[in-house]
Description:
Layout: H1 2-16, E1 20-24, H2 34-41, E2 55-59, H3 64-72, H4 78-91, E3 98-100, H5 103-112, E4 116-121, E5 130-134
Amino acid sequence: MIQKIALLVFVLSFGVQADIAVIVNPANANVVSADDLNRLFLGRASSFADGSKATPLNLSEGQVARDEFDSKVLNRSSAQLKAYWSKLVFTGKGTPPKEMADDAAVKAAVAADPNAIGYISSGSVDGTVKVVTTF
């Protein structure tokens, strides 16, 4: 009985930690590394490796996928990122990525814009976008 409960807890906890899929438009042929993501989503870069413009898209605050992206990819908490962007906006040195309401909004925006890059829960991926990496 205890083994069954332990297995159930393991399976349920695994399901809660969904993978994050970083997505681009299917026409985008760029390879995107974790370092590229860090620079794009922190405003330190504005283009892909081939020189084409990159438009990063964030999920809105409070979304589970956003919290995971912030911690796994940007290595910062939501509070740290809020402070980071507040400072850059105040000094006129940066603008944070546009925020989208949910996975469907990010996916639709990326599918419609060859320059867009975003992230969604891997379970939301379909043929309208291309996955460049997962976390």
